[in-house]
User: What shape does this take?
Amino acid sequence: MNWPLTKKHNGEAGGNGHIIEMVGITKVYDTGKIKVEALRGIDLVVDPGEFVAIVGPSGSGKSTLLNLVGCLDTPTDGSYHLGGEAVAGLDRDALADVRNRRVGFVFQNFNLLPQLTALENVEMPLLFGGVGRRERRRRALDQLARVGLADRVEHRPTELSGGQMQRVAIARALAMEPDIVLADEPTGNLDTGSGSDVMSLLTELWGQGRTLVVVTHDKGLARRAGRVVEIRDGLVVTDELAVA
Assistant: This one.
């Protein structure tokens, strides 16, 4: 079953209740000698509470798309609304504010600060968000308990397994109660058992009503999603309900 993307917008994004609405998104990297078209006209909508897996071969534009969705970068052209807010033309400071309020990130390499404890890592987005010390600690402890790490709050990343580090990263992504959680190859650096645990945790978050967009090569993780969007050569080639 293909999702009728062209029927979900009318030339411009925004105002239709979608948490993500992209229309005609392009991204061109100009190295001075050559221009690389990473995305060549992406239309994508995601509704609140969906779990979308983005798949495709290496170099197809998946991570570029995720960076744009997460306001880590801006498109060359096209219209993008996140939670009804137009973000395609925002400057760097405004994008940083939107990211901290609306988006939680989970990365393949965890991106934890090695000198900080698990608790302190989870507190970081709350610190940037201006949350007071006592409330910051309470919320970080709650999120670590939520991912099963209540007994590891004072451990540093070097004292944790790969699966535990990824769970800390997920707790950090949830700390600000974002509108959407984005994950870039969240099981890519994990062994089979740890990867399965992380997949189960992401599926559980979806079951609790979270909106998830995950870039993955992991077919098992993609099968757990509600939708699978395939990207090839900077274009959406299929957008279908996942088959369990």
Notes: Residues 1-13 have pLDDT under 50 and may be disordered. The chain has seven helices and ten strands. Residues 48-72+92-241 form a domain with the Rossmann fold fold (CATH 3.40.50.300). Strands lie at 20-30, 35-46, 51-55, 77-82, 85-86, 103-107, 180-184, 212-215, 227-232, 235-241.
